[in-house]
Amino acid sequence: MSEEVNKPQEGLQEYTADQIQILEGLEAVRKRPGMYIGTTSARGLHHLVYEIVDNAVDEALAGFCTEIEVELNADDSVTVIDNGRGIPVGIHPKAGIPAVEVVFTILHAGGKFGGGGYKVSGGLHGVGASVVNALSEWLEVTIYQDGNVYQQRYENGGHVASKLTQIGTCKKSKTGTTVTFKPDPAVFEETVFDFDTLKTRLRETAFLTKALKITLRDKRGEEVKEKSYHYEGGIQEFVTYLNSGKNPLYDKVIYIDGTLNKVYVEVAFQHNDGYNESTYSFVNNIITPEGGMHLTGFKNATTKCFNDYARKNKILKDNAQNLTGDDIREGLTAIISIKIEDPQFEGQTKQKLGNSEARTAVESIVGEKLVYFLEQNPQVAKAIVDKALLAQKAREKAREARNNVRRANSLDNFGLPGKLADCSNKDPKQCEIFIVEGDSAGGSAKTARNRENQAILPLRGKILNVEKAREERIYANAEIKTMITAFGTGILQNFDISKLRYDKIIIMTDADVDGAHIGTLMLTFLYRFMPELIREGHVYLAQPPLYKVEKNKKIWYAYSDDELKGILNEIGRDGSNKIQRYKGLGEMDAEQLWETTMDPARRILRKVSIDEETASEVDLTFTILMGDKVEPRRDFIETNAKFVKNLDV
Ligand code: TTJ
After folding, report:
1. Of 82, 312, 367, 619, which has the fewest Cβ atoms less than 10 A away?
2. For residue range 464-510, what is the model confidence (pLDDT) as tens digits?
3. Protein residue with its CA nearest to atom 17 in ligand 1
4. Within-domain flag for 217
């Protein structure tokens, strides 16, 4: 038996003025989806899931939801289930339709209910559930409330397909909202969800929302794949996770929280014995890659606290220079997460928090509670200050080393490294440099190349993992020095793209796991020291073939297993085929290397790019993956395509 909840609605012709406006709103979203979700690429597709999940996270932040499940269905639809109070089903006084219908059909209706409180959804990236509905082939919502089960369905970009209907009853104790939607293939270039992309983001959300359990379940394959994330310690566990595989300087993760002027502040940090700082800041669960007031507050408070402590305890002599913030934050892993009612985002990309009350809140809460913590934990305080003192000394040395690298660069061609086989053309726009793994492949490449505009730089073995070395040691690494000198641009503060000696920097490694690892190390180095090279599109990965097929003196090259299948299907599979699997560049002679990998007319290059919208996540991912853990690193190499857009050039 089914019972309609709201007043019976009339037929299509008798839409009220309000309802017509609703449809026009959703129509606008369909006309210009990019304006609402940024892009209709795979990234936009995944945004839809985050938007729906964020609504459920809001219910968790309000204290009424403990569990969220996300299910990927075989028909490429996705289901989000929460155990919150359920979206209200009563008639919305102004709209004259059930509140749940308002949520799914009126633009920006997101934050209208529940009154006050912090909202994750509808924030910077949040666009509201109605936008998801507008971009879906169909969407179904089921609500469990007061022992009743209600359901409504929308089709074709948010058109009401059925009125909100009570479809049954349930135990009174069961409450929640379930939403299933199928992104419209007419809107999205890609409609297949990527498990790993969702996994990373949902894990991050679980870290940021203490005690909330989030499960991702893939029901598309023969076997159901499932991951659950549940962190009672919240960001404190996030720091432990980021520092796992590194060597923490002390056992505890320092955790501080508090509220001031309605700003809820949470901070967690721990130093490791490395030299990089990994600080990530969030506002209402949204990462703020450019920081802003909350980050400034954290830096101010920690710098002051540790200097005061060091002076007071005579670790820092009266006449000694203050420790800088950078000294104190060397090897620091930190999460700053605040919740604020009305976040203001600034800067070109709107990724920087502008609310000055956030600075005041973080600065005073951290300032006050950290002093107390340091007094209670003198060993921890001493470990941090001692490390900062070492950093202070190293900073001076690094400055000298950096300047030395710059001086070498200014020698220009005279200072070029001996291993470099440079090209004769002096117009950088026409030149390219191949960074080649190993001396033997380097030799073939030198023979194969076009000397006029192709330079070859062979690297011996693996290059230094810059995620794990102090700046000063990085400059001492021969392979890295060689590259810096060859590129001509300098690095970091001294970077000058106008000095770039090659338009294309092409990383050429074996098509195996080791080669992929070397490629990753190279990209890490470039990303940390010359990110503009990647941003401006100068970095490429060469793609050597995986197979050579020979038949009746004719030769084919296959760059993937699929391509090999295709070739074999075409020429027929019989005994006269000779298939060679290339294990390394070294197995190709110079001519083959030229034909398959270096000749601009025939090769495949993949351009490396940083997805600007997710650059923050890229940074976080690099940090997670270039640590000591073997497992995640392999993961990164295999899914490396996320960073590297396929682009034939
Ligand atoms: C609002 O205040 C009254 C009680 O219910 C509150 C509410 O809206 N809760 C809520 C919304 N829980 N879950 C949602 C929700 C869940 C999903 C999966 C999707 C959407 C759009 C909302």
Report:
1. 312
2. 887 777 777 888 888 888 899 899 998 888 889 999 999 999 999 98
3. 56
4. no
Strand 67-72 with 78-82, pairing: antiparallel
pLDDT band, residue 11 (cuts 50/70/90) = very low
Distance 10 CA to ligand 1 centre (A): 27
Where a domain ends, among 331, 360, 395?
395
d(CA 508, CA 422): 16
| 324, 275: one domain | yes
Asked if 283 and 362 sit in the same domain, the reply is yes
Asked which of 198, 225, 245 is the last residue of a domain, the reply is 198
422 is catalytic: no
Tell how far the Cα of 87 is from the centroid of ligand 1, in angstroms.
4
433-449: average pLDDT: 91
pLDDT score of 31: 92
Give distance in angstroms: CA of 171 to centre of ligand 1: 19
- State whether residue 249 is helix, strand or coil: coil
Q: Is the dihedral of CA 181, 184, 188, 191 positive or negative?
A: positive
* Residue 260 domain-assigned (yes or no): yes
Same domain, 45 and 176: yes
State the Cα–Cα distance between residues 166 and 345, nearest whole angstrom.
41
Residue in 71, 237, 510, 619 annotated catalytic? 510
CATH no. for residue 277? 3.30.230.10
Spatial distance between the Cα atoms of 285 and 514, rounded to a whole number of angstroms: 37
DSSP assignment string, 111-180: GGSS-SS--STTSSS---HHHHHHTEEEEEEEEEETTEEEEEEEETTTEEEEEEEEEEE--TT--EEEEE
Average pLDDT over residues 39-58: 93
The per-residue pLDDT for 312 is 95
**Is the pTM here over 0.90, yes or no?**
no
> What tens digit of pLDDT does each residue of 379-395 get?
999 999 999 999 999 88
Q: What is the per-residue pLDDT for 9? A: 37
* pLDDT at position 49: 96
The angle subtended at Cα 243 by Cα 238 and Cα 249, nearest 5°, is 125
Q: Indicate which residue's Cα is closest to atom 16 of ligand 1.
A: 56
Q: Tell me the best of 59, 71, 136 to mutate to test the pocket of ligand 1, counting ligand atoms within 8 Å of each CB and taking the most.
A: 59
Shared domain for 294 and 383, answered yes or no, is yes
Which CATH number characterizes residue 177's domain? 3.30.565.10
Total Cβ atoms within 10 A of residue 74: 9
Is residue 514 annotated as a catalytic residue, yes or no?
yes
The tally of domains found in the chain comes to 2
DSSP string, 416-475: --TT-B--S---GGG-EEEEEESHHHHHHHHHHS-TTTEEEEEE-SPPP-GGGS-HHHHH
Q: Which ligand 1 atom sits closest to the C-alpha of 53? A: 18
Q: Which residues pair with 551 in a beta bridge?
A: 554
In a domain, residue 280? The reply is: yes
308 included as an active-site residue? no
Q: Which ligand 1 atom is at minimum distance from the Cα of 80?
A: 18
Ligand 1: distance of its center to the CA of 338 in Å? 22
Q: Residues with Cβ within 6 A of ligand 1?
A: 52, 55-56, 59, 80, 82, 84-85, 87-88, 103, 113-114, 129, 177, 179
Residue-wise pLDDT for 428-439, tens only, equals 999 999 999 888
pLDDT (tens digit per residue) in 210-239: 989 999 999 999 999 999 999 999 999 999
Handedness of CA 362, 269, 214, 204 (dihedral sign): positive
Q: Domain containing 340: what range? A: 235-345+352-395
Give residue 632's pLDDT: 36
Distance 487 CA to ligand 1 centre (A): 54
Asked whether residue 599 is domain-assigned, the answer is no
